[in-house]
Design a protein that fits this description.
Growth Hormone, Chain: A, 311 residues
Length: 311
């Protein structure tokens, strides 16, 4: 990430900017896989949903901070300093890894060991990844097409963007709260189902109702609730020695499905002639999440039956 960001500071040429983004993006993907495993190493069997919720919450919080600070830096000091500011954040991450983070003691004894994944475990991880992918697609339809939908209704772009951004700010609260709720109630799956259905219904309502602000607030309060419970699903089927490769599969399926879903949403919006179509598509994919969760539960139940000693 640091190499890509520093490359973008060297030239404003399009090819250099694209190359820098590709390099930085590759680093970001690798970090996503590794840091998810690190969180799971610490919290599997403990407050895993809360920990994962706090972890994934870094995404909307980071975007919110960037949206506040980077345009101001760019307006006052230019794009060059924007890139340097992002590089500074990355260096802070280096410092945290070097001086703050430490691996859990149990991980030391497994160093050098390699585990193998069964086909059932792979299916379960892909199912969990599909839920995470569809959930994020539903969320991205709000951010990507919500402002355009409001502009179609006569809103200014500034007002539309500011209103939809409320979802992001409230998600920063609802994501960790949902993880905490899942751990305290031990009903993570129920939170995934209820949260996905409520999120879908509110998305449909947003695309059709004129009462935008209260619906946007409700979306922000609800949309983050399933996140921690969803991200805790892989830890239920992955052992510590298979967690790295398992999370690699998890994110491979996630990153493979995300651009396809986003393209479908954009195509629907263009063909129908309204951004509301993309929001409706987001609602549909959210309603698929409980069905995939049912499939995930069947796999886990089958694994538990096989693990029972024969009598």
């Amino acid at each position: 990430m640091l190499a890509g960001e520093l490359l973008m500071t060297t030239s404003a040429l399009w090819s250099v900017q694209i190359a820098g983004r590709l390099i930085a993006g590759t680093g970001g993907i690798l970090l996503s896989v590794l840091m998810t495993k690190m969180v799971a190493d610490w919290f599997t069997g403990r407050e895993i949903a809360t920990a994962m919720a706090i972890f994934v919450n870094s995404w909307p919080v980071g975007i919110a901070i960037s949206l506040m600070l980077l345009p101001w830096i760019g307006a006052r000091f230019g794009l060059h300093l924007v890139n340097l500011a992002v590089a500074g954040w990355i260096l802070i991450g280096f410092g945290l890894m070097a001086f703050v983070y430490r691996a859990p003691e149990a991980a030391v004894s497994l160093e050098g060991e390699r585990g193998s994944l069964t086909s059932e475990t792979v299916y379960a991880v892909v199912a969990a990844s599909s839920i995470w992918c569809l959930y994020n697609l539903g969320l991205s339809m709000i951010f990507s097409f919500g402002p355009s939908m409001l502009v179609e209704r006569g809103w200014s772009m500034a007002a539309a963007g500011s209103t939809i951004s409320i979802v992001l700010w409230l998600a920063a609260i609802s994501v960790p709260f949902g993880g905490f709720l899942a751990d305290q109630t031990k009903r993570g799956e129920a939170i995934i189902v209820a949260g996905s259905i409520a999120f879908a219904l509110l998305t449909v309502l947003l695309s059709r109702s004129g009462h935008v602000l209260p619906i946007v607030i409700a979306v922000g309060a609800v949309c983050g609730l399933p996140a921690g419970a969803i991200m805790s699903l892989p830890a239920r089927v992955l052992e510590r020695k298979t967690r790295a490769i398992g999370m690699g599969i998890f994110y491979t399926a996630f990153y493979a499905g995300s651009p396809v879903g986003a393209a479908i949403g954009g195509k629907l919006s263009t063909s129908i002639g309204s951004a509301s179509a993309a929001l409706d598509f987001g609602a549909v994919v959210l309603l698929v999440c409980p069905a995939i969760l049912w499939f995930f539960r069947r796999i886990v139940a089958g694994q538990k039956r096989l693990a029972l000693p024969s009598t």
